[in-house]
Design brief:
This protein is α/β, with parallel strands linked by helices and 351 residues long. It has two domains: 156 residues, Spore Coat Polysaccharide Biosynthesis Protein SpsA, Chain A (Alpha-Beta Complex); 181 residues, Alpha Horseshoe (Serine Threonine Protein Phosphatase 5, Tetratricopeptide repeat). The strands form three sheets. Strands 4, 5, 6, 7, 10 and 11 form a six-stranded mixed sheet that branches. Helix 1 links the parallel strand 1 and strand 2. The longest helix has 17 residues. Keywords: Transferase. GO terms for molecular function: transferase activity. This is Glycosyl transferase. It comes from Clostridium manihotivorum.
Length: 351
């Protein structure tokens, strides 16, 4: 682990894994709170590392201190939920030593109903002897190769405090120094600009990234989605669809793009077109082993809720009701779905 001022979360994280792992190594990059005092309850392997605005440098230093056969890495605001703790214990007992890396799903958002809102996969447990290296000064990634397996274990991100300006400040400091951004840096700088509402700058960088032709296909798909969402937000539905369609150049259609296209047509009251794209979203198979980002709602309840709206608008209340029931099976406490149930009951449709 690498940490800094994590007194609110570090114990929660370490309590999940303290009885599973064989050693705990923590690199502190300059804490001024009680983080180190808390860490002493879990490990003596606490190291200081001067922060140089380079996450990979800190993570590689942490990896250099490991002594066991495999390295599991976590951030301080990550946890394993009870089922995943059990799965991790089983993995430790049964892992074939020919495996070089184990990916785990990373749940970075939980909706109000306890469902995963957004997730992707990361190489989370790696063989130490392979000497895998972290790359990138920010939004770093672990460069992994060899025998990689995808596990059914999830790491859940439970953020307590936010550092909204840290990353963009690092990028802009690098730019002032004359640092030349590689395509991956351009991508994540664009993400930061987008998250800070600097949309014109974000779109310029996003399009530069796509035009480079050097992006990973999953990143290209995500960029198309963000640009599509921006144009949707300013009611430029045709431009929004353009980028959703563009995402099909990089892989098979994704439910997220189909839902975006469906919504753009729904906003234009083109109901038949909206129905087509929402129904397509319900028929697609999610690529479970992909390392890309997924909005899980688009693969579960969202297209059914929207199909309920569409079919109701054209007077097909029976089909609308059926889709609302499917949405209800995923999100039984959603206020919109419950409102629809009452609406159908009021017009005499219950089954």
């Amino acid at each position: 682990m690498i940490v800094r001022d994590e007194e609110l979360t570090i114990a929660r994280c370490l309590n999940c894994i303290k009885d599973i792992v064989d050693e705990i190594i923590v690199v502190d990059t300059g804490s001024t709170d009680k983080t180190k005092d808390i860490l002493k309850n879990y490990t003596n392997n606490i190291y200081d590392f001067k922060w140089i605005d380079d996450f990979s440098a800190a993570r590689n230093y942490a990896f250099s201190k490991a002594t066991k056969d495999y390295i599991l890495w976590l951030d301080a605001d990550d946890v394993f939920l009870p089922d995943d703790i059990d799965k991790l214990k089983l993995l430790k007992q049964n892992l074939n030593t020919d495996v070089d890396s184990v990916t785990m799903r990373y749940n970075i958002g939980i909706d109000e109903y306890g469902n995963h809102a957004s997730s992707y996969r990361r190489n989370r447990l790696v063989k130490r002897a392979k000497n895998f290296v972290w790359r990138g000064f920010i939004h770093e990634y672990l460069e992994v190769y060899g025998n990689i397996i995808n596990s059914d274990i999830s790491v859940t991100h439970q953020k307590v405090k936010a550092t909204p300006n840290r990353n963009i400040e690092i990028y802009e400091a690098k730019l002032k120094e004359g640092f030349k951004l590689i395509p991956r840096d351009i991508l994540y700088y664009a993400h930061e600009l987008y998250d800070h509402g600097r949309f014109e700058e974000a779109l310029t960088n996003y399009n530069n990234f796509l035009d480079s032709g050097l992006g990973w296909y999953e990143d290209n798909i995500r960029v198309c989605g963000n640009i599509s969402d921006y144009y949707q937000s300013i009611s430029n539905f045709e431009k929004s669809r353009e980028y959703s369609f563009k995402s099909f150049q990089y892989d098979l259609p994704r439910a997220e793009a189909c839902c975006r296209i469906g919504f753009s047509y729904l906003c234009e009251n083109k109901i038949e077109q909206a129905i087509f794209w929402y129904e397509l979203a319900t028929e697609l198979k999610k690529p479970e082993n992909s390392l890309g980002f997924f909005n899980d709602a688009s693969w579960t309840w969202l297209p059914h809720l929207q199909l309920c709206v569409c079919y109701d608008r054209i007077g097909d209340h029976i089909t609308a009701f059926k889709h609302n029931e499917i949405a209800y099976s995923y999100a039984p406490n959603d206020s919109k779905i419950l409102y629809n149930k009452n609406y159908f009951h009021s017009i005499g449709i219950n089954s």
